[in-house]
């Protein structure tokens, strides 16, 4: 298949190109497009055959449900049984990087929800995403536009790398601003459960809802035979080809440990800006300043892809703090590392 590539300026969207992409969606095709979180791979949310094409283009297991994207929060009425809490969340965080799981209506085929009776809904803020959904005149089902298991794409080059020849079109709209996928919550009466952390933090959610539980799969490995609340949590995710280990400990000990490891192994470090001058003789990719969690979030997936291109045998990264957007970084890294954490103390060096 020949994949058409459209370059669109997010600050001055081109209606002709957007309409052409919306036509592709309406005729059952697949279009990858930028959002503020990561690039999405879109299909009409009410078309089960189009949804099936998403699963096959990505190589995604069919029980891993898709998020459906709407142009305005009230459009959720067409697809889900909403509630007062949904509208509270909508007025605080939409359009933006929040996905809400609610009971689904029959307009959403079960192919889209991986057979679940609930549907995940998000109203993105990215101008290209919004224009595309509006022009399609239907919700757009869109998981991240990467091959299943690889890091999510944060720029068009990543999407082209994974999807060229597999889908109808890609809209190149520059770099994703946030770089990690949306926060996902499910609503249960008056309480929220955080299924996947993202840029909308638990503290921000607590301003709208008194009780925000965190699903155990956010930070812990799933137990044998455990059914996760969010099916995507059971799959290997975000992983580079080389094994990744997370390092915890005092900064000086960690730096020394990384220098010693680099002498013994063909490894690469995802390094904080501050430690780069200290890492003599070490292969590294900078991921931002230690305290700058937003930059680290934005860089993470690109850095994991770049690490693969450098043909190393092992990758080391710092174990993030679990505060604020750090919880989202922690969740992605711990899963990319298959929960491998090395705690470094002086005696290990
Ligand atoms: P992706 O768009 O690739 O980031 O994947 C979307 C993720 O949203 C899936 O992996 C699921 O874990 C989650 N999700 C989507 N729909 C539901 C749902 N109905 N209930 C719980 N989690 C969901
Ligand atoms: Mg994904």
What does this structure look like?
This protein is of the alpha/beta class and 349 residues long. It has 2 domains: 4-218, Alpha-Beta Complex (DHBP synthase); 244-348, 3-Layer(aba) Sandwich (Rossmann fold), CATH 3.40.50.11030. The chain is 28% helix and 20% strand. The protein is built from 9 helices and 16 strands. It has helices spanning 15-26, 48-58, 84-93, 127-136, 156-163, 202-206, 251-264, 293-309, 326-336, and strands at 4-7, 31-33, 40-44, 67-69, 98-103, 118-122, 140-141, 169-172, 183-188, 191-196, 212-214, 244-248, 267-271, 283-286, 314-318, 341-343. The strands form 2 sheets. An 11-stranded mixed β-sheet has the order 1-8-2-3-7-4-6-5-9-10-11, with helices on both faces. Helix 1 (15-26) packs across helix 4. The longest helix has 17 residues, at 293-309. The protein is globular, with a radius of gyration of 20 Å. The chain binds adenosine monophosphate and magnesium ion. Residues 64-65, 67, 101, 113, 116, 118-120, 143-144, 181, 184, 195, 230-233 line the site of adenosine monophosphate.
């Amino acid at each position: 298949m020949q994949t058409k590539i459209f370059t669109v300026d997010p600050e001055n969207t081109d209606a002709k190109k957007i309409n052409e992409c919306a036509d592709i969606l309406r005729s059952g095709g697949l279009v990858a497009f930028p959002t503020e979180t990561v690039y999405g791979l879109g299909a009409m949310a009410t078309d089960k055959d189009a949804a099936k094409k998403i699963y096959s283009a990505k190589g995604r297991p069919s029980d891993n449900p898709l998020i459906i994207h709407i142009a305005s929060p009230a459009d959720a009425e067409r697809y889900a049984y909403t509630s007062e809490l949904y509208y509270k969340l909508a007025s605080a965080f939409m359009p933006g990087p929040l996905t809400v799981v609610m009971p689904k209506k029959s307009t959403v085929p079960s192919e889209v929800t991986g057979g679940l009776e609930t549907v995940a809904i998000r109203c993105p803020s990215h101008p290209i995403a919004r224009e595309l959904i509006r022009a399609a005149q239907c919700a757009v089902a869109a998981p991240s536009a990467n091959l299943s298991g690889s890091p999510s794409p944060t720029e068009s080059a990543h999407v082209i790398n994974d999807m060229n020849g597999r889908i109808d079109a890609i809209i190149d709209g520059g770099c994703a601003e946030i770089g990690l996928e949306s926060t996902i919550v499910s609503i249960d009466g008056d309480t929220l459960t955080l299924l996947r952390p993202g840029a909308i933090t638990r503290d921000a959610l607590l301003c709208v809802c008194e009780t925000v539980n965190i699903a155990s799969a956010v930070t812990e490995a799933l137990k044998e035979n455990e059914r996760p609340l969010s099916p995507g949590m059971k799959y290997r995710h975000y992983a580079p080809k080389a094994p990744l280990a997370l390092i915890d400990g005092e900064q000086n000990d960690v730096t020394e440990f990384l220098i010693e490891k680099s002498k013994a192994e063909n490894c690469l470090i995802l390094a904080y800006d501050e430690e780069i001058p200290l890492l003599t003789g070490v292969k590294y990719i900078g991921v931002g300043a230690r305290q700058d969690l937003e930059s680290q979030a934005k860089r993470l997936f690109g850095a994991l892809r770049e690490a693969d291109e450098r043909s190393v045998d092992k990758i080391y990264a710092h174990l993030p703090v679990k505060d604020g957007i750090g919880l989202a970084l922690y969740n992605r890294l711990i899963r990319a590392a298959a929960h491998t954490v090395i705690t470094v103390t002086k005696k290990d060096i």
